[in-house]
C-alpha cells in the first residue's frame, strides 16, 4: 500500500472548528455501491482517500436524519446505497477526533458536515477503518 502523509498545516479543518464532544452522537457515512455487498459495507467506506488529507467526511446525525441525508446526497448526483452510523466515541477512543465543518457551497450546502481526523499514515488509517467498520451500524437503506 502506498504511503501518504499530510504536510504540517495541511488539515482541511479550519482553525476554530468545533470539536465534537458528545461521545454518543452518531456520525453518518454514505456507502458506495462498489464497496457494498449483500448488506455488508467494506472497510474502504470508512477510510479517507489520499485526496481527503487524512480526514473522513461524515454528517452529524444530531442535525439531519439518515434518510434526509441520503436523499440530498443522491440529489447531488453522488453515489450512496446506504447510510451507516458510527458514534463519535468510537472514533475518539482510537485517537480520531471529529470536527463540525459545515459546507456552504452554492450548489451543495451541507451545514451538518463534519470531518473525522484519521492517522496520517495510510496503513494506520486502513487499520482504523477496519475497526470502525466493525462498530458501524446500518441506519438507512432505501427499498429497491
Using the CA coordinates, give the radius of gyration: 14 Å
Class derived from helix and strand content:
alpha+beta
Helix content: 10-25%
Which residue ranges are poorly predicted, with pLDDT under 50 across at least 5 consecutive positions? 1-8
**Main beta sheet: strand number and arrangement?**
7 strands, antiparallel
Principal-axis shape: globular
Arithmetic mean pLDDT: 91
First-to-last CA distance: 36 Å
Biggest sheet strand line-up: 1-7-10-5-2-6-11
Characterise this structure.
Mean pLDDT is 91; it is low at 1-8. The chain has a seven-stranded antiparallel beta sheet with strand order 1-7-10-5-2-6-11, sandwiched between helices. A two-stranded antiparallel ribbon has the order 3-4. A two-stranded antiparallel ribbon has the order 8-9. The protein has one domain (20-140). The chain contains three helices and eleven strands; from the N terminus they run E-E-E-E-E-H-E-H-E-E-E-E-H-E. It is α+β, with helices and mostly antiparallel strands and 144 residues long. The longest helix has 14 residues, at 122-135.
Amino acid at each position: 500500500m502506498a504511503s501518504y502523509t499530510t504536510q504540517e498545516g495541511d488539515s482541511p479543518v479550519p482553525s476554530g472548528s468545533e470539536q465534537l464532544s458528545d461521545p454518543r452522537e452518531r456520525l453518518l457515512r454514505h456507502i458506495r455501491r462498489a464497496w457494498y455487498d449483500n448488506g455488508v459495507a467494506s472497510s474502504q467506506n470508512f477510510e479517507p482517500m489520499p485526496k481527503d488529507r487524512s480526514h473522513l467526511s461524515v454528517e452529524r446525525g444530531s442535525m439531519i436524519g439518515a434518510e434526509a441525508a441520503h436523499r440530498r446526497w443522491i440529489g447531488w448526483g453522488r453515489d450512496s446505497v446506504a447510510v451507516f452510523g458510527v458514534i463519535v466515541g468510537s472514533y475518539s477512543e482510537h485517537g480520531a477526533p471529529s470536527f463540525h465543518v459545515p459546507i456552504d457551497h452554492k450548489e451543495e450546502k451541507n451545514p451538518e458536515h463534519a470531518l473525522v481526523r484519521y492517522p496520517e499514515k495510510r496503513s494506520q488509517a486502513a487499520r482504523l477503518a477496519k475497526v470502525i467498520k466493525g462498530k458501524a451500524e446500518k441506519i438507512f437503506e432505501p427499498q429497491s
